[in-house]
Each structure stands twice: as structure tokens, then as C-alpha cells.
């Protein structure tokens, strides 16, 4: 190594770890590394931390969250914010099908056709051996009737591609944890008077002791807690334009036109953006194939409460523009003024589709038209809406790149580059999993950092 | 441009929480979560129960420290006369004995023949340092007896996710297992004479009471199911007897010696 190269290497070793994004993943990473004495610098493109996790409350008292801000008491405890959270006492899900609603999951037992089909599939183990796609998995585990009527249309609306093109990895592991486990959680929720979390974590065990809570002020409060003590290390309005790599090893970032040395980079950017961000290697080019499903998320205001039969109503029939309706005030009443309610509507679509380009009022009208057909009287009670659009709603688990996706578990092929968070990991994970998985990734980073820079 | 994080928006919390970054016994940061617990179970303060994947110690993170750091309840019951007699067997009448409970400060001068640590490691800021300190106070050949809850017990297996009676919040920071205690003893330079479990039927009753209170059962019903009368006592004794037969009783007792 010549003198100048050695000098550059020393600069990189002494440089902070650059963290792209001040959402929950980026701040968890920054908090963990900082507590352990490693220098960090967080770059946030927006004007404030928390980005889309910010909640807003209008003058009438409606609080708009981007997605439901329910977290678990375990995450609240881990961050020491339990006393700033409300305990959620009620959470349930239902499926709307052919004018009827079925409680999820046990309501389907009312349908002999679904039960018989599921029993047939359970008695033919051969079907489970030949699972190649999400469609195969659902048919093998739920029976053809239930899979074709409910599970497959939902996953297709969610992903935007036919279920036989989706990897079975799209099915969260908790779905396969067994009927008895779900029953135990439901019973303990009923007995304890708490909304025991079921299906909200992929990486931590579910238990009667883990239930939903809602942070006062929304998820931004978690971000504030994580950012406490890091004030001087967070740069807002600082868009990272490039990640600089030498010889497949990170050396810095380019921020607002200026190069900054970095000993490592933690990215929360969507994975398919990384090939465009990274300079000096083509090792990540394959990630440009990865797709995210854009979403239109509308919050509709209504008079009266409740309007829906459950907090979350799944809508698999394709004649409707949406696949999920969430009346959060049933769980978290203070998100809407008394006597009113708020329904969050999820519409999966492409960015060049009519839905994505439609004016906010037109989206509201369209949703109300369908809601009124499903739940008569909805139009009369409608009071307006707010709409948010995101081009990166959910990762799409295509079979085409499943091998590359599963290889991500062992990290990226660029030394010193780590990708965390829901978009950064390309994973269907919720708030708590983002926290624990980011901590696990930071353990890897610290071990690498210690080995490299000791 | 730098952002200021507005801490004033956060409601004041009663306690200061410090994240336990590593296992207090072996310093590993590989841990699984067992559940969530809090003061008197159900209060707004809470902490995550972590099990170290390396040494199996169970520790609480974040660690809470509050103004009401009072001594742990029912410490003295662990020092029953029969136990004290057993542990001090063979010592001369002039033997120097020190009992350390969580409320005590450990003295600076040493030369002790026997040091009893009752639930002290569980609430120490640095349990490994406390054990090393105790080792340093022993006369050559002197012994340390450690007694506390057993996080490898049958009772813990059932209640360890939240309602285990050993979680006395906010004082308790740690629950030991035989493996964790072995590791701590070796680190402190102490020779292990014996690590065993001893019966404590009350652990079942107190843990059950914690569970029933947490689920808002009426106090009368809780008393009926867990009170000091024959049926609950007999059931608890039976369960603890079965656990003890499998070496998984609720109390952990270790006799350690300075080489």
C-alpha cells in the first residue's frame, strides 16, 4: 500500500458510520451504534426525523397516521416509553366475501365448503411437498376453495402479480404457527382485556404477554426517543446522492454535492434504488430487478362509530378497488373526535395507473361508492378524506428473484454496506421486527467494524 | 443543518431507564426475549425480559432505577435457621460471617470465612463485580453461598414471561440459572463446591397471584386461589416437589470457595 492509500484508509477508519434515513430503522441503528461508542452521522433527506411516521392532527381532532401506528408493549418497553403509551384493549379482523363477513380466522368454520376443502388439502400431504409458489402454498394449506376465494386474491391485490409468480416466502412464518397457538392468543386477549398481538412479529415469539399499545403522539415518539442524545449527529435536508465504493468496500457518501468519508454505511433506502446510488461497483446491479408495490392510502372521515364490523376488514373480491379497510378508532378511539370515525383504505396499484393519478376527492368518492354498497349508509355519513401515495408500499416477492432475495439474509456483497428497515431489507415486517432486526444487523456491523478497524 | 429533538414533548417518566446492552454475567449481546414485565405487573413502567443465548442468564432491559429502590421483600426468609446451620457447618465458633442482602453495602475489609449473598446478584448494578468483590473479602478457604431465584426452574418456565415472583421491579435486574452462576463464579475466581436447587413452593403461589392480579381477577378470588390455606399450599407443594425431583426447583443455591 502506498502512503496516500494508507492515509485514505486511515481517514475511512476514523470516519463516522453514515446512516441514510432518520426513520425508525435508521434511528435504531444510530442509537445502538452511538451507545456503544461508535461515531455515527445520520443523513435525512426530509425536513424532520421520522419521515412518513409523522402523524398529523387536523383542527377537528382527526389524527392521520400513515399506516396503523399500533406497536407492541414489548417494543415500547425496550425503548422505555411504556408510560407514554395507551394499552389497546380491542383488535379484530374480518373478511368480507359475497356480502357476508367472516371473523378471521375462525369464522370460516361456519362455511362447510371451506372446511371440507381445507380438510381435503390437509389429508393429502403430497400437495404440500410440491409447493413452488404462494398460490401452491395457500391451496395446500387452506384448501382450494378458501385459497382461491380469499388468500390468493388478497396476496395478488397486495403484490400486483399473479400468486403463481410469487414465492411462498411471502407467507409470514406466523401464519403457519398453528390453530392452537392462535386460539391461545385469542383466549388470553379475551381473559386479560388486552389486544394480544397475533401475526405482528416474524422474529420474536408471540405470547399472551405481548399486546398492542399506541404511543401518545404516534410512532414519531419512538423516533424521538431513539434520537435523544443524537441531536448533533443528525443532519436533516441532507439527501445522500451517492454511496462511494472502492474495490467493493464502502469509503464514503456524497451528500448535497459534497463527499463525506464513512467507515461504513447503513442504508434504509429501498433496495432497488441502491444500484443507482452506489458508485464504484456493479455488485448490486441485480437489485434493480426488485419490485415494490405502490399504494394509495386514503383516510376517510365518517359520522358515527363504528362503521365496519371489525377493526380490519379484508376485501378479497376484485370488483372493489381496495383490499383492506381499517377503522382504527375502534381500537384507538382518540384518533377521531367523539361520534366520528376514520377508515384507512389500502389500494394497491401501479404508479402509472388511474388510481395513483386520481385526485384525492375522486379517490374518496370511489371508495365511498364501494363502501356504501358493502355497508349501506356509508355515503350518507361520509365527511371527506385525505390521501397519501407511496411508490414503495410493499416488497413484491417474485419467484424470479427469490434466490437473490433469500441471499440478502447474509448481507450485501459490498463490504461495509448494510441495509435495514422494511424497504432496506425488502421484507414484510412491522415496527417491532424492524427494531429487532436492525439491532441484529448492527451486531454484524460492529463485529465487522471491530475486526476491520482494531 | 442539524435537527433538535424536542424532549419536552415526552411525558415525564417516573424512572430512568438504562438499556442493558450486554448480559451482565458474560457480556454477550446475543439474547432472546422472553416477555415483558413491570412494577407490580400491569403498571405503566415496563421492561423486556431477555435471556442471554450464551450463558442463559435472564436479565431485564432497559434497567429501571427509581427513587423507591427499597430492599427486596422476604429476603430474610431465605436465611432460615436450618439453611444457615447447614452452610456454616464445620466453621469454628469464632468464624467471621457476612450476610449481604440487596439493601446492604459490602464492607471494604475482609477476612470472612463465610459470605452469604441473598438475592444480591439479582439487584446489583454489576453482579460480576459484586461476586469478585465478595471473593476478595474471603479468607483463604472461605466460602460464598449464593441464593436466589432459579430461572431454569419449572415455575420459571411457566411464569418467566411476565409473572415470575422473582421479578421485583425495579430492584431486580437479573435472574440466574445454574449455567450463568457457573460462569459468574469462574469469572470471579471462585471454585464451585456445589450448585443445586431447593424447593420454594411460595414461588408458585406468588407467581400465580401476580398472574391473576395482572388479569384483573377480584382480590377475593386471588386470595382464594393463592392464599395461605391448605389447598393452594398443597397444590403448590406438589408442583414444586415434582419440579425438585427433576432438579428444577425454584431456588438456586451455590456454594463457592476461594481456592
Number of extended strands of chain A: 21
Which structural class do the helices and strands of chain B define? alpha+beta
The strand order across the widest sheet of chain A is: 8-7-17-18-19-16-20
* Biggest interface and residues each: A-B, 43 and 34 residues
Quote the beta fraction of chain A. Answer: 15-25%
In N-to-C order, the SSE pattern of chain B is EEEEEHEEHHEHEHEHHHE
What proportion strand of chain B?
A: 25-35%
Strand order of the largest sheet of chain B: 6-7-8-11-10
Chain-averaged pLDDT of chain B: 82
The structure class of chain A reads alpha/beta
The main sheet of chain B comes to: 5 strands, mixed
Low-pLDDT segments, ≥5 res of chain B = 1-15, 67-76
Principal-axes geometry of chain B comes out as globular
Q: Helix segment count of chain A?
A: 16
Main beta sheet of chain A: strand number and arrangement? 7 strands, mixed
- Which term fits the overall shape of chain A? globular
- Backbone CA Rg of chain A: 23 Å
Distance between the termini of chain A: 18 Å
Gyration radius from CA atoms of chain B, angstroms: 19 Å
Q: Roughly how much helix do the residues of chain A carry, as a percent range?
A: 25-40%
Mean pLDDT of chain A, as a whole number?
91
Quick overview of this protein structure:
Chain A has 454 residues and is of the alpha/beta class. In chain A, 34% of the residues lie in helices and 22% in strands.
